[in-house]
Structure prediction request, 188 residues.
Amino acid sequence: MTTYDAAPPRRLPWLNTTHHRTALTLFMIVVIAHWAEHLAQAYQLWVLGWAPPQARGVLGLPFPWLIKSEWLHYGYAIVMLIGLFLLRPGFTGRARTWWTVALGIQFWHHIEHLLLLVQAQTGHFLFGRAVPTSILQMVAPRVELHLFYNTVVFLPMVVAMVLHLRPNETEARAAGCGCARPAALPGR
Prediction:
């Protein structure tokens, strides 16, 4: 017999309760490391004046094949998407809204990387281009576009994290994790 008034099961309940802070910390380390790669590449391009093929971020300098690997870029996009999806149940209220915004934007970013990966694997390029090209690359160069994507995913994540760590009383009562700072919890 099925009951419809029961709450839907939560994905990986331990991830969004007792281990939420640890999971968020590890996820944010990965996100910030990736963000640093994009910022290093931007610095190489716009401050040092390097040509785009030479501006490969930090890891791309000793390992040039990394920057050209669509599998690597798609892999990161899918890790981000999965992380945002799996950690979302741990957020409540305003923080959940902002986390969901980041998830939605990352979903589109993932689609763009999937298009690039499929083109790289098949050798059939969109829009008559000689290289894999995403949809929004028609209006912005790839480096700038992906710096933009990572910015518009990262910023709502930061807002979500701040709101998650400093919830109002209603959000703190609804939270299933211990991420909030003790001073932010009701009755303290």
